[in-house]
Amino acid sequence: MVSRSILAVAIASFALSVLALPTSLTANTASLLRRGAEGEPFLCPDPDGTAAGKQALESAGAQQVDIAIAMLENGCAFTATYGIGNGKTGDAAEIGVYRNNWSMLRTYCDRFKGAGPDDWSTIGQLAHNDVHVATECQVQLWNTLGADQFFSLQR
Hints:
- This protein is about 55% helix and about 5% strand.
- It is an all-alpha fold.
- A two-stranded antiparallel ribbon has the order 1-2.
- Strand 1 (about 95) and strand 2 form a beta hairpin.
Protein backbone atom coordinates (compact mmCIF):
# COMPACT_ATOMS: atom_id res chain seq x y z
CA MET A 1 0.00 0.00 0.00
CA VAL A 2 1.27 3.48 -0.82
CA SER A 3 2.20 5.47 2.27
CA ARG A 4 0.36 8.71 2.99
CA SER A 5 3.64 10.67 2.89
CA ILE A 6 4.69 9.41 -0.54
CA LEU A 7 1.23 10.02 -1.91
CA ALA A 8 1.14 13.50 -0.36
CA VAL A 9 4.40 14.42 -2.09
CA ALA A 10 3.06 13.17 -5.43
CA ILE A 11 -0.22 15.04 -5.07
CA ALA A 12 1.49 18.21 -3.88
CA SER A 13 3.92 18.08 -6.80
CA PHE A 14 1.00 17.71 -9.17
CA ALA A 15 -0.85 20.57 -7.48
CA LEU A 16 2.15 22.86 -7.67
CA SER A 17 2.84 22.12 -11.32
CA VAL A 18 -0.69 22.03 -12.72
CA LEU A 19 -2.38 24.72 -10.66
CA ALA A 20 0.18 27.35 -11.61
CA LEU A 21 -1.83 30.35 -12.81
CA PRO A 22 -1.13 34.01 -13.40
CA THR A 23 -3.39 36.05 -11.13
CA SER A 24 -4.70 38.08 -14.09
CA LEU A 25 -6.64 35.16 -15.58
CA THR A 26 -10.40 35.04 -15.38
CA ALA A 27 -12.03 32.36 -13.22
CA ASN A 28 -13.22 30.41 -16.27
CA THR A 29 -9.82 30.47 -17.94
CA ALA A 30 -8.12 29.59 -14.67
CA SER A 31 -10.48 26.67 -14.17
CA LEU A 32 -9.65 25.30 -17.61
CA LEU A 33 -5.91 25.72 -17.14
CA ARG A 34 -5.98 24.07 -13.73
CA ARG A 35 -7.08 20.88 -15.43
CA GLY A 36 -4.46 20.75 -18.13
CA ALA A 37 -1.60 23.02 -18.97
CA GLU A 38 1.50 23.60 -16.91
CA GLY A 39 2.24 27.22 -16.18
CA GLU A 40 4.37 29.44 -14.03
CA PRO A 41 5.52 28.41 -10.56
CA PHE A 42 2.50 28.21 -8.27
CA LEU A 43 2.22 31.21 -5.96
CA CYS A 44 -0.76 31.79 -3.71
CA PRO A 45 -2.05 35.36 -3.97
CA ASP A 46 -2.53 35.61 -0.18
CA PRO A 47 0.32 33.77 1.56
CA ASP A 48 -0.93 34.73 5.03
CA GLY A 49 -4.42 33.45 4.27
CA THR A 50 -2.97 30.29 2.80
CA ALA A 51 -0.84 29.68 5.89
CA ALA A 52 -3.86 30.27 8.15
CA GLY A 53 -5.97 27.86 6.08
CA LYS A 54 -3.28 25.20 6.21
CA GLN A 55 -2.97 25.66 9.97
CA ALA A 56 -6.74 25.34 10.35
CA LEU A 57 -6.69 22.03 8.47
CA GLU A 58 -3.70 20.77 10.45
CA SER A 59 -5.37 21.70 13.75
CA ALA A 60 -8.42 19.75 12.57
CA GLY A 61 -6.21 16.67 12.10
CA ALA A 62 -5.36 16.89 8.40
CA GLN A 63 -2.14 15.27 7.25
CA GLN A 64 -0.04 16.17 4.21
CA VAL A 65 -2.12 14.11 1.79
CA ASP A 66 -5.33 15.76 3.04
CA ILE A 67 -3.85 19.22 2.59
CA ALA A 68 -2.65 18.30 -0.90
CA ILE A 69 -6.16 17.08 -1.82
CA ALA A 70 -7.72 20.29 -0.46
CA MET A 71 -5.20 22.31 -2.47
CA LEU A 72 -5.98 20.40 -5.65
CA GLU A 73 -9.68 20.98 -5.09
CA ASN A 74 -9.63 24.63 -4.01
CA GLY A 75 -6.25 26.14 -4.82
CA CYS A 76 -4.94 28.27 -1.99
CA ALA A 77 -8.24 28.83 -0.22
CA PHE A 78 -8.35 25.74 2.04
CA THR A 79 -12.09 26.29 2.38
CA ALA A 80 -15.01 25.12 0.29
CA THR A 81 -14.89 27.80 -2.41
CA TYR A 82 -18.01 26.59 -4.18
CA GLY A 83 -21.68 26.25 -3.26
CA ILE A 84 -22.69 23.05 -1.53
CA GLY A 85 -23.09 20.30 -4.10
CA ASN A 86 -21.05 22.21 -6.72
CA GLY A 87 -23.94 21.89 -9.17
CA LYS A 88 -24.51 18.24 -8.35
CA THR A 89 -27.26 16.74 -6.18
CA GLY A 90 -27.91 13.59 -4.18
CA ASP A 91 -25.04 11.16 -3.76
CA ALA A 92 -23.01 12.96 -6.45
CA ALA A 93 -23.06 16.29 -4.54
CA GLU A 94 -19.57 17.56 -3.69
CA ILE A 95 -19.23 18.45 -0.02
CA GLY A 96 -16.56 20.35 1.92
CA VAL A 97 -13.01 21.47 1.38
CA TYR A 98 -12.04 18.01 0.08
CA ARG A 99 -15.03 17.85 -2.31
CA ASN A 100 -15.92 14.33 -1.27
CA ASN A 101 -19.15 13.11 -2.76
CA TRP A 102 -22.16 12.71 -0.50
CA SER A 103 -22.33 8.96 -1.13
CA MET A 104 -18.84 8.48 0.34
CA LEU A 105 -19.61 10.66 3.32
CA ARG A 106 -22.88 9.00 4.23
CA THR A 107 -21.46 5.52 3.70
CA TYR A 108 -18.06 5.76 5.39
CA CYS A 109 -18.10 8.75 7.76
CA ASP A 110 -19.55 7.85 11.17
CA ARG A 111 -21.11 11.28 11.56
CA PHE A 112 -23.30 10.83 8.47
CA LYS A 113 -24.06 7.09 8.50
CA GLY A 114 -27.78 6.51 8.12
CA ALA A 115 -28.36 9.75 6.19
CA GLY A 116 -30.19 9.47 2.90
CA PRO A 117 -29.21 10.61 -0.60
CA ASP A 118 -31.45 13.67 -0.29
CA ASP A 119 -29.85 14.85 2.99
CA TRP A 120 -26.81 16.27 1.18
CA SER A 121 -28.12 19.85 1.24
CA THR A 122 -29.11 19.85 4.90
CA ILE A 123 -26.98 17.47 6.95
CA GLY A 124 -24.13 17.84 4.44
CA GLN A 125 -23.82 21.51 5.43
CA LEU A 126 -21.91 20.36 8.52
CA ALA A 127 -19.00 19.04 6.46
CA HIS A 128 -19.30 21.76 3.86
CA ASN A 129 -18.97 24.65 6.29
CA ASP A 130 -16.71 23.22 9.01
CA VAL A 131 -13.16 22.10 8.22
CA HIS A 132 -13.05 20.09 11.44
CA VAL A 133 -16.04 17.98 10.38
CA ALA A 134 -14.74 17.72 6.80
CA THR A 135 -11.31 16.62 8.04
CA GLU A 136 -12.78 14.15 10.52
CA CYS A 137 -14.63 12.52 7.63
CA GLN A 138 -11.64 12.77 5.28
CA VAL A 139 -9.45 10.87 7.74
CA GLN A 140 -12.16 8.22 8.27
CA LEU A 141 -12.61 7.82 4.51
CA TRP A 142 -8.89 7.49 3.93
CA ASN A 143 -8.36 5.05 6.80
CA THR A 144 -11.34 2.92 5.79
CA LEU A 145 -10.82 2.87 2.04
CA GLY A 146 -7.09 3.23 1.48
CA ALA A 147 -5.62 5.28 -1.36
CA ASP A 148 -6.75 3.23 -4.35
CA GLN A 149 -10.38 2.87 -3.34
CA PHE A 150 -10.54 6.42 -1.99
CA PHE A 151 -9.50 7.94 -5.29
CA SER A 152 -11.67 5.59 -7.33
CA LEU A 153 -14.73 6.67 -5.35
CA GLN A 154 -14.03 10.34 -4.74
CA ARG A 155 -15.33 11.55 -8.12
